[in-house]
């Protein structure tokens, strides 16, 4: 009986020793999201420790490369003047930016503890609100043709999703689910911001704008008017006839001009191959004779 009691006391003391004299850390959230320009606190809670003044360090790990954030009791690196340590070991980051997205490691070392070191890893992702998207809306479209409206922005994080509006009314993903848009033949893509009309109808005319949205917020472009015109066969035929008449008049004009000699061209054979005329008063001496003849004015 005494032996069993002694064994129990030994196990209990061993357990208390292991629990008490060991650094143990925990966090409330290992995957943290924060909106840009807001503050966020990364929790590093010390559940167990015996050393009175443990060494606390924070490191930022980005692209696999670690750098100090809190070292030798002061904030350093790109968080200098923008972060502070809260008791016991929490890291408060003020005015977070997209460059703060990284892994953060809290390290606590206690030389008086049997387990003198522990660390915990926390992921921080900074959400960035979308900027005003670039919207492309055609000014005019012919009824019965196809067309595409485009919307895009590249600053938001996570990636933005897009939604189109016509006359301040949201276009449903499937037009067949709405009485107002039932006859439309468009297809939307929320990831690329595309709005395609297979066959444009007169009812599709209106003011269109696009909205980019993610978990951090949303932004929209200014409304742009898209007009839809009927396909006018009579006008097209009139333009064709006018073009034919203009061609005929131009041809007749050229023929009349040529007939009156305005466009006549001289025969090159008449000018290029005429025998040059020489003045009878001048001597015409060939090159070969020039070496052996003297002019008449030469006196011996």
TrEMBL record:
Matching Pfam families: Ig_3, V-set
Span of the signal peptide: 1-22
GO CC term, one of those recorded: plasma membrane
Gene3D superfamilies linked: Immunoglobulins (2.60.40.10)
Localisation per UniProt entry: Cell junction, Tight junction; Cell membrane
Keywords on record: Cell junction, Cell membrane, Disulfide bond, Immunoglobulin domain, Membrane, Signal, Tight junction, Transmembrane, Transmembrane helix
Ig-like domain residues: 38-123, 130-226
One function term, GO molecular function aspect: protein heterodimerization activity
Domain of life: Eukaryota
Regions annotated as coiled coil: none
Transmembrane parts of this sequence: 233-257
Membrane-protein topology: Single-pass type I membrane protein
Record-linked InterPro entries: Ig-like_dom (IPR007110), Ig-like_dom_sf (IPR036179), Ig-like_fold (IPR013783), Ig_sub (IPR003599), Ig_sub2 (IPR003598), Ig_V-set (IPR013106), JAM-C (IPR042974)
GO annotation terms (biological process): cell migration
PANTHER family, per the entry: JUNCTIONAL ADHESION MOLECULE 3A, JUNCTIONAL ADHESION MOLECULE C
Protein family (similarity comment): Belongs to the immunoglobulin superfamily.
Name under which the protein is recorded: Ig-like domain-containing protein
Protein species of origin: Pangasianodon hypophthalmus
């Amino acid at each position: 009986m005494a032996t069993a009691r002694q064994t129990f006391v030994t196990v209990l003391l061993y357990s208390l020793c292991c629990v008490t004299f060991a650094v143990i850390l925990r966090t409330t959230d290992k995957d943290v999201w924060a909106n840009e320009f807001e503050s966020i606190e990364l929790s590093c809670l010390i559940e167990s420790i015996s050393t009175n003044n443990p060494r606390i360090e924070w490191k930022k790990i980005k692209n696999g490369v670690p750098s100090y954030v809190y070292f030798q009791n002061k904030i350093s690196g790109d968080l200098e003047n923008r972060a502070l340590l809260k008791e016991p070991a929490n890291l408060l980051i003020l005015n977070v930016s997209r460059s703060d997205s990284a892994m953060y490691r809290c390290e606590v070392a206690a030389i008086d503890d049997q387990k003198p070191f522990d660390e915990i890893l926390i992921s921080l992702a900074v959400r960035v609100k979308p900027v005003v998207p670039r919207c492309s809306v055609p000014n005019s479209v012919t009824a019965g043709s196809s067309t595409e409206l485009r919307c895009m922005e590249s600053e938001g994080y996570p990636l933005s999703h897009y939604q189109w509006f016509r006359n301040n009314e949201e276009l449903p993903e499937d037009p067949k689910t709405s009485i107002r848009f039932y006859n439309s033949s468009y297809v939307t893509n929320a990831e690329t911001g595309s709005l395609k009309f297979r066959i444009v109808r007169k009812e599709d005319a209106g003011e269109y704008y696009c909205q980019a949205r993610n978990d951090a917020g949303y932004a929209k472009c200014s409304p742009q008017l898209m007009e839809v015109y009927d396909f006018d066969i009579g006008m097209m035929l009139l333009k064709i006839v006018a073009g034919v008449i203009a061609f005929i008049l131009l041809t007749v004009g050229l023929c009349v001009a040529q007939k009156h000699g305005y466009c006549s061209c001289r025969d090159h054979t008449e000018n290029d191959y005429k025998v040059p005329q020489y003045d009878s008063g001048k001597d015409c001496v060939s090159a070969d004779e020039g070496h052996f003849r003297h002019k008449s004015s030469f006196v011996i």
